[in-house]
Amino acid sequence: MTLYQKYCKETFDGSGRLTDFELAYPDDFNFGYDVVDEYARLEPDKRALVWCDVYGNERIFTFSQLSDASSRCASVLKNAGIGRGDKVLVALKKHYEYWITVIALHKLGAVIIPVTHMLTAKDYIYRIESTPIKGFIITHDGDICDRVLEAVNKTGIDCCLWTIRQNKAGFRNLTREMEEASPLPERIKTNVRDPMLLYFTSGTTGLPKGVIHDHSYPLSHIVTAKYWHHVKDNGLHFTVAETGWAKSSWGKLYGQWLAGSAVMVFDFDNFDPKMMMHILNKYEVTTFCAPPTVYRYLVRSGIPELPKLTHATTAGELLNPEVFRLFKEKTGLSLCEGYGQTETALLTGNFDAAASTAGSMGVPSPQYNVKILREDGSETADGEVGEVCVIPRKEGVLPDGLFTAYLNNEELYRQVWRGGVFHTGDSASRDSEGRFWFNGRFDDIIKTGGYRVGPYEIENVLMEHPDVLECSVIGVPDKLRGQAIKAFIKLRPGVMPEHSLEKQIKEFANTRLSDYKWVRLIEFVEEMPRTVTGKIRKASQRSE
Question: Which residue among 177, 310, 447, 532 is the one 20 to 30 A from 198 at the CA level?
Fold first, then answer.
């Protein structure tokens, strides 16, 4: 069985296509109680989480087991003083304890701050100084506990510190305390408008911003899971994402469980394409989602038969058409792109695999009124570039799934909501069939010779060259043109960065581009500068 239909109203056309979607939920909706515990009551043995790691360890959790474990975890945290509205920072990588901890914090009404394990002590200090943090729940791996202790000692905050599985100096052992704890005796009162989740954005153009979501946010990912990921009841969905990224909430937890699918988690640090393919087949994963970077490595490494895989999606960066073509050629599956932000749920997507088009963001989600607008607020014509915006269906009513605030920054929140619509800061165009095409962040637009050029159209062409593994295009100062187009290129393994290859790549790209889009400069790099969420940091490349 699935629970998602209890919380939404769906409208379909004659061909069965979803045309409208509206959420309906009680004021006290809480994902921990109303989804996890409810599944445990109705179908206690229903599979919820399949976890494995690179060492061959494996754990499979039913909803009954997750319900009990999260209740015991909540009891430990509550007895330590963690309660409604308290903020708890969680850095648990892809350990199965993450899912237990998240549910426990939801049940308490606490605010979870998921972060990547790659944060430095300075990063932790920034977050501590941005908002009061009452607790930390940290992986035992590596020196992460040391980094947290350094940050806590330097800021002098009074908080609870937990790690898992092992004893670490300065930390309580959450695993042991859970084993000794009793479950929560009763449901704790929460409200759907309470803050539930605080993500710090990747900071591509500045310091990370704190993005706050309330308890309705999990329900906004029903469309993500059911109609974009195409998860099935009792299926197994695998999204490749670290738990510190918002993409983890998109694909490893909320919508998938609401739609009845179990979640696959592969706990690894270093990406191995062959191991990834082995996991997909061993556990018979039915639906899969990964960033374009992962698909690039997969198609270059060779993809085996994937007989159980029925649907594949991607998001986070623009998908190059060449990767789309190669993946479909080897699997028979079209990659379905989707688009959204940390501040939102899925805004646009390729919902129909048969109609999925390489490089397109797809069409607006039936959940949102998404338009491409000019600076004056009017809607663009077909083919005209404008800003992707979300217009509330009811004036003054915040659409479900959109963030409720920026941490400590009301001015910025008002700025992105100017004119009564949400401004994403992303530019795109729309074709005659209603599909959206990403053009770039407005910060990334290149102005050359009087023309405006989106970097992604150049990158798409460069990625077609067989020796290019990754690339990033920016504009650099140029006396003649205002800006010249420069490409940073990471070559495939075994290829040497020689001047003759630079010339060959330029010729390859420029014969396929209009002359005002020509690549003028190429710099070969071993690695791209990235944000903690894995996105290429173009701002760093521009400042070099």
Answer: 177
Q: Is 460 helix (H, G, I), strand (E, B) or coil?
A: helix
Question: Taking a C-beta distance cutoff of 8 angstroms, is the pair 329, 307 a contact?
Answer: no
CB-side neighbour CA atoms (13 Å) of 193: 3
d(CA 316, CA 333): 19
CB atoms within 10 A of CB 407: 20
Amino acid letter, residue 417: W
> What does DSSP assign to residue 183?
P
AA identity, residue 365: S
Is-contact 291 240, C-beta < 8 A?
A: yes
- And the tokens for 513? 């581009």
Higher pLDDT, 478 or 47: 47
In angstroms, how far is CA 6 from the centroid of its own chain?
Answer: 26
CB burial readout 299-329, b (16+ within 10 A) else e: beeebeebeebbbbbbbbbbbbbbbbebbbe
pLDDT tens per residue across span 289-336: 998 878 888 888 888 889 999 999 998 777 878 889 999 999 999 999
Average pLDDT, the chain: 92
Q: How far is CA 189 from the centre of its chain?
A: 29
d(CA 343, CA 366): 18
Strand partners, 466: none
Give the whole-angstrom CA distance, residue 146 versus residue 123: 13
Domains in the chain, CATH or no CATH each: 4-369 (3.40.50.12780), 451-543 (3.30.300.30)
* Number of C-beta neighbours around residue 355 at 10 A: 14
Gap between the Cα atoms of 275 and 81, Å rounded: 42
Q: Residue 70: left (phi > 0), alpha (psi -120 to 50), or beta?
A: alpha
